[in-house]
Amino acid sequence: MYKILIVDDEQKIREVIKEYAEFNGYEVAESGDGMSAIGLCKLNDFDLIIMDIMMPKLDGFSTCKEIKKIKDIPIIMLSARGEEYDKLFGFELGIDDYIVKPFSPKELMARVNVVLSRRHNIASAHTEILKFGGLEINIPARTVTVDGVKADLTPKEYELLFYLVQNRNIALSRDKLLSDVWGYDFFGDDRTIDTHIKNLRNNLGDYRDYIVTLRGVGYKFEAQD
């Protein structure tokens, strides 16, 4: 059974999400602020976090940063603000989805299912360690090392790299990357992909050229097996 943490300072919202989550077979824990959410994450292993941005003590973005330092947990952000800047900032932090309030609980559960399914598929797709020269991708451990030094990738950068490698030597459009890595109805644009590719290349150092830009199309990971 998947275990979900709901973080929102509005009790009624927590109650509604909890009701739908439990109906869908999830085990649920609750937190009313960011500080206590971090404490719960230190003591428990959650499969996914649903978290509001505007909260007392510590906002959702700051809470996300702190949680990502200790555990790689998928996060769906909730916000009353739908500005593009907030969405892009959230995805750069490594969140998996962004939903604007008011929202449909049924849609939220659909997105939860997609995120958990995508994470499970990535974890179970391979059990080996992939090597391309001095670039090593450890699938089970979800780590990347460059000439023996661990690269500091965000969860979303790792998922993007893994997807590129999984489909190596295949041209992938930006729309395809957005759909398969970010989700079926992510409302991002090309800048989301380009920003993550730029950061990913910077982290790969001398192996940045494995990620090839296809002008007018997208990207591909070009390397020999």
UniProtKB/TrEMBL annotation:
Key words, A-Z: DNA-binding, Phosphoprotein, Transcription, Transcription regulation, Two-component regulatory system
Modification type 4-aspartylphosphate: residues: 52
CDD domains: trans_reg_C
A single MF term (Gene Ontology): phosphorelay response regulator activity
Superkingdom in the source lineage: Bacteria
Domain OmpR/PhoB-type positions: 127-223
GO biological process, one term: regulation of DNA-templated transcription
GO CC annotation, single: protein-DNA complex
Glycoprotein as UniProt keyword: no
Database matches in InterPro entries: CheY-like_superfamily, OmpR/PhoB-type_DNA-bd, Sig_transdc_resp-reg_C-effctor, Sig_transdc_resp-reg_receiver, WalR-like, WH-like_DNA-bd_sf
Location of the DNA-binding region in this protein: 127-223
Protein name: Stage 0 sporulation protein A homolog
Response regulatory domain ranges (all copies): 3-116
Role description: May play the central regulatory role in sporulation. It may be an element of the effector pathway responsible for the activation of sporulation genes in response to nutritional stress. Spo0A may act in concert with spo0H (a sigma factor) to control the expression of some genes that are critical to the sporulation process.
Span of the signal peptide: none
Xref: SMART domains: REC, Trans_reg_C
Pfam families registered for this protein in UniProt: Response_reg (PF00072), Trans_reg_C (PF00486)
